[in-house]
Task: inverse folding
């Protein structure tokens, strides 16, 4: 159960299973590289969502290029089936992308116009203001810099299990207790659960030891040594979950106990508005990355519609919400809606 206390046995089992997965993945990949002499590797299937194993595979340099399907579970299999039918049965030509990969950020879901957003918000009794494109970016970046936690609902929804900057909850990764706060007050889950940094692609190598882009948040990279903070011996001697409270880098809310992070590199040609937000946040703070997690509570799907986003906003401790060009502040909403939406969005077990 999610509320159960973790024991050393639980942690040992998780660590052992992860180690075996990494060993098997590397052995299979090594055999493929040796027998095929190929320089490129594509990964799919549920195990391909194991970003720690993926990070070690990239670091092994068995292949020149590694690409991981962003919906690498059962849902993504539909793409393979469609492509197989298109190329093999209909004999249509295959086009090789020379720039950004053909998934183009994986933003394949529904999108809502500002008029559709306003219509849904009005029906729910929401209080909002409409901002220009420039003001939207400025207000959102300033909110993050002021340590506020924001809901971010923009453009077409992501295809796959990761929130990539369209249906995301965002925060300042430099705040030491942000990880615990988000888990307990927003996501309603265990406080140890990690979060990911979304960083401008151009700044990736300045913050992480990661030799290739990771647009789909599927590769782990180590935080660079110049961003790591020294720790006292007493902190190094901590055991189990107590290690989570150690501030080990300049971006503690997205740094794991082994100094790694599950990185998403953000590209302006696939998600222009999200890249603008991070760029503005960098201008204000000097930090080119934000904490990014999926816009939902435990056991519930990622929000899809503006109505979904507003209900989740009201049912959690999010400070503000940006849907299209609409800006909503929690303290300006009808507080009578809070109880109703909290009951509707009661967290479910994963």
Result:
């Amino acid at each position: 159960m999610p509320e159960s206390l973790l024991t050393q046995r639980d942690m040992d089992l998780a660590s052992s299973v992860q180690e075996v997965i990494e060993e098997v993945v590397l052995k299979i990949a090594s055999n493929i590289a040796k027998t095929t002499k190929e320089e490129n590797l594509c990964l799919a299937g549920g195990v391909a969502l194991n970003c720690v194993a993926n990070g070690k595979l990239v670091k092994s340099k068995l292949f020149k290029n590694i690409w991981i399907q962003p919906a690498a579970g059962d849902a993504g299999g539909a793409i393979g089936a469609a492509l197989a039918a298109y190329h093999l049965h209909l004999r249509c030509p295959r086009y090789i992308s020379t720039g950004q990969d053909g998934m183009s950020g994986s933003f394949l879901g529904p999108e809502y116009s500002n008029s559709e957003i306003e219509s849904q918000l009005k029906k729910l009794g929401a209080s909002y203001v409409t901002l220009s494109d420039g003001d939207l970016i400025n207000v959102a970046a300033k909110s993050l810099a002021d340590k506020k936690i924001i809901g971010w609902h923009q453009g077409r929804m992501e295809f796959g299990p990761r929130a990539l900057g369209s249906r995301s909850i965002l925060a300042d990764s430099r705040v030491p207790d942000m990880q615990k706060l988000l888990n307990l007050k927003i996501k309603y889950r265990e406080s140890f659960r990690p979060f990911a940094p979304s960083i401008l692609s151009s700044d990736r190598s300045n913050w992480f030891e990661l030799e290739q882009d990771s647009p789909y948040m599927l590769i782990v990279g180590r935080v660079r040594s110049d961003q790591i903070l020294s720790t006292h011996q007493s902190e190094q001697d901590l055991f189990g979950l107590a290690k989570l409270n150690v501030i080990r880098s300049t971006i503690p809310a997205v740094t794991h106990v082994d100094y790694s992070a599950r990185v998403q590199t953000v590209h302006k040609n696939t998600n222009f508005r999200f890249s603008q937000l991070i760029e503005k946040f960098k201008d204000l703070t000097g930090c080119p990355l934000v904490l990014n997690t999926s816009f939902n509570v435990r056991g519930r799907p990622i929000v899809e519609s503006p109505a979904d986003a507003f209900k989740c906003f009201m049912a959690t401790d999010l400070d503000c919400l940006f849907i299209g060009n609409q800006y909503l502040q929690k303290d300006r909403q009808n507080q009578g809606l809070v109880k109703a939406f909290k009951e509707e969005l009661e967290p479910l077990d994963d």
